[in-house]
Each structure stands twice: as structure tokens, then as C-alpha cells.
Amino acid sequence: MKQTSEAAFETAIESVLLADGYHTLPSAAFDRERAIFPDEVLEFIRTTQAKQWEKLQSLHGEECGKRVLEALSKWMETHGVLATLRHGFKCFGKTLRLAFFRPAHGLNRELESNYQANRLGLTRQLHFSTQSEKSLDVVLSLNGVPVVTLELKNPLTGQTGGQRHPPISS
Questions:
Q1: N-to-C CA span, the chain
Q2: Is 140 helix (H, G, I), strand (E, B) or coil?
Q3: Could you tell me which residues are beta bridge partners of residue 24?
Q4: pLDDT of the chain along its 170 residues, tens only?
Q5: Are 21 and 119 in contact (CB under 8 A)?
Q6: How far, in Å, CA of 103 to CA of 1, rounded?
């Protein structure tokens, strides 16, 4: 493999990010309909918001995860991904957070613990479309929600940025 190949560049990006706290998420774990990694979302919520999760689970039992993902999907369609990451979403009267930001100080251990619980994911060759097998070279996610997409090009091998992919929700 040439050192100037797209795959080599992906590998270089991946190794740096994995060494900095990211973890690999397989493309197969991506829900193309909802445009999220559902297991990551649910694991983050269960880990950081156990009380709310227990209350929802007592209401919905085995269907709890499914209900949370449905509420999240509807909320993001209405309010957008960024607002949902910043403010959370409503699910059967409970506000659930999808991210915790760095606290202004280290005096509150719970806030610091929740911030440290954020899960940074990296996926190579993410197949995003429900209608084709198109893929993005690299996708970075926060707690199962894609936030950055990278489409790598190599001018040394004649690749250009001329081809555009539709937004990830396609």
C-alpha cells in the first residue's frame, strides 16, 4: 500500500484519535434510518442517567430502549442535532442528555464524572444511505451521534473534491 493512499491517511487519523481516547465503532452498528449508533446512545444514557433510565424502564420494560430511540429520533428531526446535544431531549416527561460538556470548575464531582463518560467514536467507511452503499471515509461521533464527517482526497493520485455526498441523514 502506498503511503499516499486514502487508506493510509485514514489509518493515520485513526491511530492518532484512538490514542487520544476515541474508540472504534463499526459501520454495521450504524442505524441508517435514524442516523445514529443506537447501542452507543443507549449505553451513554444508561451509564450517565441511571435514575431517569430506571424510571423509563419501569414504564416501558423491554421496550424502553426502543421508546427512547423513537423519542430521540423525533426530537432531532424537530430540533436538530446541535440543539439536542446541547440541551437534551424529552422522553415521556423526562429530559435525557446526549452529551455533557466540560464543567467550569472541578468542584462538582458528578458533573466531572458525566463529562468523562462522554464516548467519542470513530468509524471508517460508514455506509450511511438507506438507498445505496455509499460511504463516508471517516465519521466522528459523540455518544453515538455523528458530529463530523471526513471525505479524504489525495491530489497526488488524481482524487479531487468534485464528488459530493448527500447529508448523512439521506
A1: 32
A2: strand
A3: 122
A4: 445 577 888 899 999 999 999 999 999 999 999 999 999 999 999 999 999 999 999 999 999 999 999 999 999 999 999 999 999 999 999 999 999 999 988 788 988 999 999 999 999 999 998 888 989 999 999 999 999 999 887 665 555 555 555 555 54
A5: no
A6: 44
Q: Residue 93 and residue 76: Cα distance in Å, rounded?
A: 16
Grid cell, residue 166, equals 448527500
Give the span between the Cα atoms of 115 and 118, in whole angstroms: 6
Q: What's the count of helices (H) and strands (E) in the chain, helices before strands?
A: 6, 6
Per-residue DSSP letter, 31: B
Q: Are 140 and 37 in contact (CB under 8 A)?
A: no
The model carries a pTM of: 0.84
- Asked whether 59 and 92 are in contact (CB, 8 A), the reply is yes
In total, the chain counts a number of residues equal to 170
Strand order across the beta sheet in which 23-24 lies = 23-24, 120-127, 135-142, 145-150
Euclidean distance between CA atoms 155 and 6, whole angstroms: 10
